[in-house]
Amino acid sequence: SIVSRKKCPSSHSEEIQDCVRATLSEWFATIPPPTSPTDLPDTIDCSIPQATEAITPEEREELKVSVKLFICEADLSSIKDAVDKACQALAVSQLDSVIIAPPALPEEVSQTLDNLQPAWSELEGLVQSHKIATIGTSDLDKELLEQLYNWAQVKPSSNQVNLASCCVMPPDLTAFAKEFDIQLLTHNDPKELITAASFQEAVQESTQDLKVADWRLEWILRYSIIVKSRGIIKAKGYLVHAKRSSL
Q: Of 10, 37, 145, 216, whose CB count within 10 A is highest?
């Protein structure tokens, strides 16, 4: 897991690359240099505590913690893992809002309710266990959002729309969202937040001792801490989780 912050990025991918480079470089400076990749465990927790905005109990009521979770692998256990790690890193017992971005599909494949249901069920369980207050979706058209809404036990509270592919909110989506009190938000995230090659490049630049091709991204979590009364972002950052393939 990597925790870091970055300002003024030129792209989301570059922002994450810079976070990975800075966090790994700082973390590796605190440990004895590994003599080979096998010296490292399959999972490395290299968070930098001073780079993480832990929230004190006194200020919790004044802040909203919003998260967007990008799933890179099909393993659904990563959803609970990501939420648990975010709560731990930010010192909160519950996230106020989580929007999920499922793994990117090939261009010729359309998103379906069947694809969304397993991940949504995981999120519903986390709402029921009070780890998340509200859950939202990303890039669903009116038909798919309606299907999810009708099927779900915990209804989506929001749906993000990428304005790169849709300059104006579709009227049918706007009408449905208004009728069922679903907030429509905009975003400019690419389908793939960072490629495997870009991630491995950032890792390679941070240390020469890792066989970067052995590491694969499992999930990326982007958080924002918002001051409710002023509507401004107090802090933002990423948690990135990658796992090493069996050697």
A: 145
Q: Are 20 and 203 in contact (CB under 8 A)?
A: yes
Strands 215-227, 232-244: pairing kind: antiparallel
Rounded to the nearest 5°, which phi and psi values hold at 224? -130, 135
The amino acid sitting at 247 is L
Contact yes or no for 21/202 (Cβ under 8 A): yes
6 — phi, psi (to 5°)? -150, 145
Is the pLDDT confidence value at 6 over 50?
no
Contacts of residue 152, Cβ cutoff 8 Å, sequence gap at least 6: 120, 124
User: pTM of this prediction?
Assistant: 0.86
d(CA 73, CA 216): 9
User: How open is the CA angle 123-226-131, to the nearest 5 degrees?
Assistant: 25
Q: What phi-psi label fits residue 8: left (phi over 0), alpha (psi between -120 and 50 degrees) or beta?
A: left
Strand partners, 219: 71, 241
| Rounded CA separation 73/231 (Å) | 33
Q: What are phi and psi of 202, to 5 degrees?
A: -65, -40
Please provide residue 244's backbone torsions phi and psi, each rounded to the nearest 5 degrees: -85, 135
Q: List, for residues 152-163, the tens digit of each pLDDT value.
A: 999 999 999 987
